[in-house]
Specification:
GO molecular function, one term: DNA binding
Oligomer: single chain
Number of helices: 7
Radius of gyration: 20 Å
Distance between the termini: 60 Å
Largest sheet: 2 strands, antiparallel
Structural class: alpha+beta
CATH architecture of the largest domain: 2-Layer Sandwich
Mean pLDDT: 87
Pfam family, one: zf-H2C2_2
Protein name: Zinc finger protein 436-like
Low-confidence stretches: none
Keywords: Metal-binding, Nucleus, Repeat, Zinc, Zinc-finger
Number of domains: 3
Strand content: 5-15%
CATH class of the largest domain: Alpha Beta
Helix content: 40-55%
Strand order of the largest sheet: 1-2
Organism: Branchiostoma floridae (Florida lancelet)
Length: 177
C-alpha cells in the first residue's frame, strides 16, 4: 500500500496522468482522484451532515461544513483578525496579504493564490463543462453559471434592488440600473 501511495504522489509531480474520465477527458495521476471527479458527473454526494440536510461529494467539504455548526475558529490572521476553523484556510488567506500566487497555468501563464481557482481556469483550455442542467442539454464549466442558467426554468428572481424593489434573475442586472 505504501508503495502505491508513493507512486501516486510521484505521478502528481510528473506529467504522467494515466487515469482519464470517459465523460469529459479529465486526467489525473491517482485513481482515487478520478473516482472523486466522477461524482461531478453522477451527482453522488455520499458525505452527509448529521445535523442538517447538507451533503457533498468530498469529505473535506463536510469537515469544513461541520465547523459551521460548532462555530469553533481557532486560527486567526494577525494582520486583519480573520478567523477560521482550518489551518489550511488561514494559510490560503495569508496570500491576500502577501500577494503570493503559487499556482500557474502552463498554457497561458495565469496565476492564482488558490489551487481550486487554477483547476476552474484550466477548463477554459480543455473545454470541460462538468455541470449539466437536469432540465435541458445546457452544460457549464462553472457551477455558478449553471445556477444562473437554472433560473430560466424556475422563473425565480432572487435579486432585488433595495431602492425601488425591482427584481431580477441575475445579480449583474442590478449594477446596470
Amino acid at each position: 500500500m505504501a508503495d502505491s501511495n508513493l507512486r501516486g504522489h510521484e505521478q502528481e509531480h510528473s506529467s504522467e496522468k494515466p487515469y482519464m474520465c470517459g465523460e469529459c477527458g479529465y486526467r489525473t495521476a491517482r485513481k482515487s482522484h478520478l473516482s472523486q471527479h466522477m461524482r461531478i458527473h453522477t451527482g453522488e454526494k455520499p458525505y452527509k451532515c448529521d445535523l442538517c440536510d447538507y451533503s457533498t461529494a468530498q469529505k473535506s467539504n463536510l469537515d469544513c461544513h461541520l465547523a459551521k455548526h460548532t462555530g469553533d475558529k481557532p486560527y486567526m490572521c494577525g494582520e486583519c483578525g480573520y478567523r477560521t476553523a482550518f489551518k489550511s484556510h488561514l494559510s490560503q488567506h495569508m496570500r491576500r496579504h502577501t500577494g503570493e500566487k503559487p499556482y500557474m497555468c502552463g498554457e497561458c501563464g495565469y496565476r492564482t493564490a488558490r489551487k481550486t481557482d487554477l483547476l476552474k481556469h484550466m477548463r477554459t483550455h480543455t473545454g470541460e463543462k462538468p455541470f449539466k442542467c437536469d432540465k435541458c442539454d445546457f452544460s457549464a464549466a462553472q457551477k455558478s453559471t449553471l445556477d444562473s442558467h437554472r433560473v430560466k426554468h424556475t422563473g425565480e428572481k432572487p435579486y432585488m434592488c433595495g431602492e425601488c424593489g425591482y427584481r431580477t434573475a441575475h445579480k449583474s442586472a442590478l449594477s446596470n440600473i
